[in-house]
Amino acid sequence: MEIRNTAVLLAAGRGKRMNMEGYKQYLEIQGAPLFTYSLRTLTESPVITDIVITVNEGDEDHMRDLVRQHGLSEKVRAVVHGGAERFLSVYEGLKAVSWPCDFVYVHDSARAFLDRETLLRLDRAVRETGSAVAGVPSKDTVRITDDEGYGLSTPARKNVWIVQTPQVFRLEDILLAHSMAVESLDRLEAEGIQITDDAMVAETMLGIKARMVMASYNNIKVTTQEDLPLAEAILKGPSFR
Ligand code: CTP
Ligand code: MG
Fold this sequence. Notes:
By secondary structure, the chain is an alpha/beta fold. Helix content is 34%, strand content 23%. The chain has helices spanning 34-44, 60-69, 86-95, 116-129, 171-183, 185-190, 198-206, 227-236, and strands spanning 5-11, 28-29, 32-33, 50-55, 76-81, 103-108, 131-137, 144-145, 151-153, 161-170, 211-214. β2 and β3 (32-33) form a beta hairpin. The chain binds cytidine-5'-triphosphate and magnesium ion. The site of cytidine-5'-triphosphate (CTP) has 22 residues, from β1 and α3.
């Protein structure tokens, strides 16, 4: 039977670090809202069969209108509102999956420049390993410090990866891991553990060791104003998508 993969496309943030009016997922870049770029790549990819989009509460109709206007409705099965934190938005997206689904591709809409090759590599990896995370090897040396900034260690650069999205898991695994994380919020907080991505939830809750998969140095997260000229340059570049 054919494998069915759902993308959970996250667009329920508030883009505070962009320091602008409105939310960054709707910011127009070269004539189209930021979220439409990765939505188009997901829609055109043979790897993805279904898509859920998470949005801020009250944005559902606005999002559905934009998706329609940009001709991207084909695979969008649900638009749901997210939560106050990124991982809570992921959880809402996962709970909305009410159709057959093998793997879930959790993706930040702020990573507009996802390319089709990365999706193909993730697909090959998860069929083997059951979970995979997009990223790139660090070009910089990374130094681990104590709270005062004094060096504790310097990991071998070949083992240091910059973590991106998509992050891919079996639906039942990542759903269970997130429901456990939500149940354990008080304990996590008491232990000073801050959830930063989905792989961390899967690792902390279920001991899942997701395999890193080479993505692209263009797969940046549009986060601050400084990223905008870079985003324009990537869009104009020869290798986009
Ligand atoms: N996101 C989400 N729900 C949240 C927070 C974030 O769906 N409660 C999404 C954002 O829309 C974004 C992605 O997760 O596509 C990555 O988050 P980030 O880059 O931090 O975006 P924002 O949270 O919107 O920005 P900021 O942290 O600067 O406020
Ligand atoms: Mg954020």
